[in-house]
Each structure stands twice: as C-alpha cells, then as structure tokens.
Design a protein that fits this description.
6-stranded mixed sheet; 4 helices; 139 residues; Nuclear Transport Factor 2, Chain: A; alpha+beta
C-alpha cells in the first residue's frame, strides 16, 4: 500500500471520528459513491456525491451520542483498501454501548475517495465486493 493511500484513509477515519465534515469533504471526489450494507431504517443505502454521503453519515451520527470507528487493519488491493474496523455505538441516553467489528472497502484515485462500501461482516466479504466491482468494469 502506498504511504499516500494509507495516509488518506487514516485522515478520512480521523476526520470522521472528529465529525470534521470539512476535512472529510476535502478527501472525497465530487462524484464519490457509497454503499451501506447495514443501513439504518428509513435511510438510503447508497449515496452519490459529497452531499448525499454526508447526509447518510449524519443520520448515523444523529442516532447515537457516540459513534466511533477504530481501524484495526488496513489491507491493500491495488487502488482499493480494505479496513477491518471496530465500531462503537453509544445510545443517546448513554446507557447502552454496542461494539461491532466488520469491514469496509474504499477505492481511491489521485488521493481522493471515489467509492466506498461499508457494513461487511468481515474482510473476505469486503474483498469479494472489490472482485465484483472490478469484474463489472472488465469488457
């Protein structure tokens, strides 16, 4: 994995955890695509563009008093990065804390996130999404 790619994914995660939408937006391609395999009820499962992605992420933040992503492992697959991530969710009344470990995959180009998919149960499922995506672009 290139040092630049890893740095971008780390900055995305840190900015997300800090709710720094301006910093997140700077790392997104204007036409970024996002797919959530575990969407909230009544929230779209996919987004196209910076504004739609922000809307989806804000819905997740609004549902919890705490919402944090700790990347445990980064795996490089050409212009894709798979992250094994421990998510922590705290209820609004702070009485319930949930932890879930899953995986996400991100595609970067020229230092910008162009595609991301989240909510995979594990790294293998995230890697399979990359395989399916790359097959879709092969003539």
């Amino acid at each position: 994995m290139s040092a630049e790619t890893l740095a971008v994914v780390r900055r995305l995660n840190a900015s997300f955890n800090a709710s720094d939408w301006d910093a997140v937006s700077e790392l997104l391609d204007p036409e970024v695509e996002f797919v959530d395999h575990l969407p909230l009820p009544d929230v779209q499962a996919s987004a196209h563009g910076v504004d739609e992605l922000r809307s989806v992420l804000e819905h997740w933040r609004e549902g919890f008093s705490g919402f944090h992503a700790e990347v445990l492992e980064y795996l490089d697959f050409d212009d894709y990065v798979v992250c094994s991530t421990r998510w922590t969710f705290k209820s609004r009344d702070k009485q319930i804390e949930l932890r879930w470990t899953g995986a996400e995959t991100h595609q970067l180009r020229h230092g910008k996130l162009i595609w991301s998919a989240a909510g995979f149960p594990d790294k293998r499922a995230a890697f399979e999404a990359i395989t399916q995506r790359t097959r879709a672009f092969v003539p």
